[in-house]
Amino acid sequence: MATIKEVAKHTGLSSTTVSRVINNHPYVDEAKRKKVLEAMEELGYVPNSSARRLRGQRTNTIAVIISRIVNPFFSHLVDAMEKLAAEQGYQLILCDSRLEKKREIRHLELLKTKQVDGIILASIQNDWKDIEPYTRYGPILSCNEYDSKASMPMVVCDQKYGGYLGTRHLIERGHTKIAYAGGADRIELTRDRFTGFEQAMKEAGLAIREDYLFTSYYGIDDGKNIFHRMYALEEKPTAIFAGGDEVAAGVIKEAKRFHCRVPDDLAVIGYDNQPIADLIDPGITTIDQPMKLMGTRAMEMMMDMITHNRRTMYQKEVLPLQLVVRQST
Amino acid sequence: MATIKEVAKHTGLSSTTVSRVINNHPYVDEAKRKKVLEAMEELGYVPNSSARRLRGQRTNTIAVIISRIVNPFFSHLVDAMEKLAAEQGYQLILCDSRLEKKREIRHLELLKTKQVDGIILASIQNDWKDIEPYTRYGPILSCNEYDSKASMPMVVCDQKYGGYLGTRHLIERGHTKIAYAGGADRIELTRDRFTGFEQAMKEAGLAIREDYLFTSYYGIDDGKNIFHRMYALEEKPTAIFAGGDEVAAGVIKEAKRFHCRVPDDLAVIGYDNQPIADLIDPGITTIDQPMKLMGTRAMEMMMDMITHNRRTMYQKEVLPLQLVVRQST
DNA sequence: CCTGGTTATGATATCGTTACCATATAACGT
DNA sequence: ACGTTATATGGTAACGATATCATAACCAGG
């Protein structure tokens, strides 16, 4: 609509002076500044951000890539990020990979095409070698998920420890037949968590049974599914470590429906400490991940990278995990 | 990095021809087209989207304003929107108003500054008179929430009916002392839902007691809170209609903790039919809102408005609500 | 009175694309 | 042979802002 030139014409000043007013440049006569502001008001002038972006080479926009926004873990992460971004005058583009590599790559292209100033990866589907090329177009950092081959800043939790912590807890409760449900194997976070599980089992001299392992499960329905597969087994596990509170909730829901008592017949431990863990009955024992803190720190680091023009600086920040004991174990 | 001019120089052609290749213009010699594509590949050329936006006056970006992303209702809505947007090559900017008018207005500014092609309002904090001015800068439509004074396209549910439906159900179960917990009064959706409640109560010849009404409640903790305030009453209600499954879940959680049996001592009905409603024990009877459908339809309408350049076309699409009976009533 | 810094303003080039107009050859019908 | 249309290409002016350079008035210090 109204452009800077029209404001200039309207005031009899040059567009340069108008621009100075807009950007609070010091050397502008007070009377003229007022005049310009009035004209802007009158014409309903607003700076066109596409023009500013082109000229200034900055977008004030950040993309966050997650794998499933309906997962409360990601909702909370994104919530914390959005809050900080908004406070700093940044926009947040929500990119959902839906666990697909192609979608993730398409979202990374945003950096190439200069639609965003930086990208936060809260979920990683592709190998580092496919992501790395994008780092030359702007800052990329990971939050929550990670790749040890990658050299990018990261805000993560010690997943090996998390896996260990949960498993130890089950062992301390006297369990020996422990099942494990995790995400996709190709994900390092998933493998690390499993490593922690293995370690605790090994320490206790317990064997890991193939038929007690479930992979690539995320949601409530997956949890229900797993329950049935477990209970179809000849020798049933007495405890399960689920890779997320939603899965745990699904297991518990179905267990109760089939009169399998939790935790007496089957102990269940989740992961994340989502609100739901405290809501259902019995409350889910879980590994607390500091979702808010992770999101906030990641965004802070991103801002820092953008404003100080740092690129592939390598920095790993590890946030604490914690066991939260409730009634499901 | 590499611009269209460099590709032009590299091929010995004009930037116009390169642009034609990029945009699949028909009149380009096949051999030259190939040559351009090779040069683009070699130089790692990618069109700069800020320049395109400026030139083309389109951003391929849509903003969605919600009030709280951690509310699963909004997560699901946004999920459906993001999916469709991505398929059509659009970006989605997540705008969380956190129930604050100022934030909402700041987000509406995105349309003025040409950062987005359109805005979907899934939550409305401001009066129509404060939103209306923005409609002249681009398409705005509402999804879920609405304002009868507003003339913008809407995708909504019949909230009066929803309120009526839930209340009737409680009445049919024999309840007469029915409490009601809703959102903020200034929201029309909230008032309509309450109107439905009133109507059902009136039809049954039941009185509405002031001390049974709770306003401005949204989350799990609010639900817990409400339970305590209800149970501090001399004459306790035997049923409560909560304006969201999270609130209902909070009420139930706390009820159980204080040995108040659901539904025998207290029947609880929720709203939305979020996954949680089916998960907790007892399952929450609730009013199903077609979240996916609402999100999808809203985004479809937005696309239509953008591509056909429609503005304040008034169109109201009402999607069906449904009572889902579980064990909490 | 001259030099040099502070204050104030404007002209112009530039960011990277694409729309529009101009030009040129080839192909075609009459 | 000649106008007409389809095919192919390039030059240039936008889109709307701001960085840079140039200019000029003013005041202070020597």
UniProtKB/TrEMBL annotation, chains A, B:
Ranges for domain HTH lacI-type: 2-56
InterPro entries: HTH_LacI, LacI/GalR-like_sensor, Lambda_DNA-bd_dom_sf, Peripla_BP_I
Highest taxon above the source species: Bacteria
Molecular function terms, GO-annotated: DNA-binding transcription factor activity; transcription cis-regulatory region binding
Keywords, ordered alphabetically: DNA-binding, Transcription, Transcription regulation
Pfam family for this entry, one: LacI
Recorded coiled-coil stretches: none
UniProt keyword annotation of Transcription present: yes
Protein name: LacI family transcriptional regulator
Native source organism of the sequence: Alkalicoccus urumqiensis
